[in-house]
Specification:
mainly alpha
């Protein structure tokens, strides 16, 4: 869903680092530069040193955008408008 605010193991705040992490990886792919950021380099730059915090960021799957596409109220409104 959305990135947790704190690491489950140590309690360090990691929620504010997700957008920057994705931006570092995305910018590197679009630029195609030789000095590319790996996952390790991006996490080092963000200050994620502990393996528990790295796990939280590395294994996160961002599903919120996909879930927002499935709004059941929109379908019921369309059905009511269609049926009369």
């Amino acid at each position: 869903m959305i990135i947790p605010v704190r690491c489950f193991s140590c309690g360090k705040v990691i929620g504010d680092k997700w957008e920057e992490y994705v931006k570092l990886l995305r910018d590197d792919v679009t630029e195609g530069s030789q000095n590319s950021y790996s996952n390790r380099d991006a996490m080092d730059q963000l200050g994620l040193k502990r393996y528990c915090c790295r796990r939280m960021v590395l294994t996160h799957v961002d599903l919120i955008e996909k879930l927002l596409q499935y709004n059941p109220m929109e379908r019921t409104k369309e059905r009511l408008a269609r049926d009369g």
